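Before relying on records like the one below, remember that each one covers exactly one chain. Contacts with other chains, cofactors or solvent are not represented anywhere in the record.
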Amino acid sequence: MIHREGYKTILWATFGLVLVYSSCYFLYPKYTFGAISVACVSTVLWLFVLQFFRNPSVCVPQQSNVVVAPAHGKVVVIEKVMHQGKEWIQVSIFMSPFDVHVNRSPISGVVKKVEYFAGSHRPAWQPKASLQNERTYIEIQNEHILIAMRQIAGAMARRIVCYLKQNETVSLGQEIGFIKFGSRVDVLMPTWVDLQVELNTSVVGGKSVLATYTT
């Protein structure tokens, strides 16, 4: 399945691919090595764009006391941080250009806050990216836990999409946004949660459990 955020980009990529094929056909009718090489490279780039916007279905956990990964990727940070005068556990997930870039809700609950911040475009794996890069800050709360998360733009990403609105109710694993062309998502959890992941763990958005909590 292709994500709706990719429709326009894929349309333009397809138009460009057809244009390359047509040019190769009319300019190099004998199918020279150069023409074939250009056509092959163009096809690979088109396939890269196509796979980037894939939106596979996920099997959301049935437990009510879990925090799931909001994105596909690799866990690159697990640390305690100070945020809003309190200590939190931060788990950061880096999404390479080859990962699925759909973002999903880490818990079920009510959206308490959605804030957009303009900023720089440092490489997403740098620590300063959390507070200096372009980002969207989100808080979701239910009767047991408050979770905060950041959608962070990276060196390649130039568009963060967040579908959430304040006071909206979301379900576990629900699609909440999209980040184009590689980036990072931070998840901030209370220190009393029971972590279920380690550094360099590969996670699946909406499926992999980051932590459990008492209900």
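The chain has three helices and 14 strands.
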